[in-house]
Amino acid sequence: MEENFILEKKKFIENYNLARPIMTILGDEVRQEILLTLIETGGTGGIRVGEIQKRSHVSRSAVSHHLKILLNAGIINMRREGTKNYYYIDFDDSTVKPVILFWQQVEPMLKRCIKERESRG
Questions:
Q1: Which of the following CATH numbers is that of domain 3-120: 3.30.70.100, 1.10.3720.10, 1.20.1250.20, 1.10.10.10?
Q2: What is the pLDDT of residue 107?
Q3: Which residues fall within 8 angstroms of residue 95, CB to CB, at 6 or more apart?
């Protein structure tokens, strides 16, 4: 096996391990629905829990619970105006970047693994 391929594969696995915790968090269907709601309302300066609840058809307490998980993971952000909290996605300040990087590398790595396997057999 080529040394270069071994290093590429090692880096790919490292990137996967960085992305894995975020992918696990994003694997929950309720959190996916909340993220979709945040994306659909993007650019509005954020959205409040009640509005997320209306749009996502998830109970208010469930929305709050899942927002806390998304916040703690650094996937979304929150800004406060007085007593009101507004939730939003800021890709410049998000832990989702390792997931994006990982998925950008999947197809090239898959092709490289196929090529390596074919060259051996």
A1: 1.10.10.10
A2: 94
A3: 22, 73, 74, 75
